[in-house]
Write a structure and sequence with these properties.
two-stranded antiparallel sheet; alpha/beta
Amino acid sequence: MKRILLALSAVCVAVTTPYAVAQTKPAKHFIVYLPFYRQGDMGAALAATNLTGVTDIDIAFVAPPLCSGPCTSASDFTISADSHTDAEVDAVVGLAHAKGISVMASIGGGGGGVSEIAQFYNARLSAPLVALLTEYVHRHKLDGIDVDIETSDNMGAPYADFVAKLITAMHAEGKLVSCATAKYIQASMPQATLLSFDYISLMVYSNLKDAQDALNFFVNVKHVPAARVVLGVGFYGEARNDVDADYVDILNAYPNAYRVDTVGGGTLKDGIVLNYIGEDSMAKEAKLASQYGGIMVWQLLGDARPPHSLLDVIRTNFR
């Protein structure tokens, strides 16, 4: 996803029963990404957050290490959550499950994590990679895998084979497989792969028109059922040159920023103009998402505290 906000804006042949695990799938998703690529106690951060209404937490990201040379069956496939320990992952899963919230492990991202996953399936090593991911899901009592491959040169037959094997393995265990995707990737993603996921999250993260256009494209052009399409919204602001800032930092620098969708001229990021989703726009996008399969947030720790929490705005308007 927009890994450290770099690509947030994704990712087989079709399986015959894409809803083999439908009994675990909520009517509408309210997904939040938890940024394990950041430092800090993720369990404590989650415990301090009002998670009312949230249905899914996606851990961003888990991956094996990069191969030192060409990847082989003898390479290190060990899966880990960025710089965080297994105990930290377990703490987040335990807290979420106690609240009835599913937890998915997200693989890929807009940064280097894509290479860490793609290196194996491009080397025709999907089977051992899927086996290790399955073991990781079991060990941490996770509810499935979110596939977040965002580079078009890593699509094609090896990617399709990897996703097909992953879906087969996860569905056999009653787990889900989702993907984070965007329009710019679709020329390279096999259509059957897109349709094989249990649901897809659209990396839009911008204004209402962009959200409407993306939903229309995936439902009416790519023919993904509306109930399986989740709208992505961003808790951050971005400038045209890829400078970005968390929504909470924007509000700290511009106390009235919640009223609008653009700020600039102050001390934050040398006064560069930042575009984001303010409260009124977030309310409209949450209502729009209610007509589809749900809403997804990139990323949880970007939110501000009440009375200007965007999570609160979503809760009020998402049904």
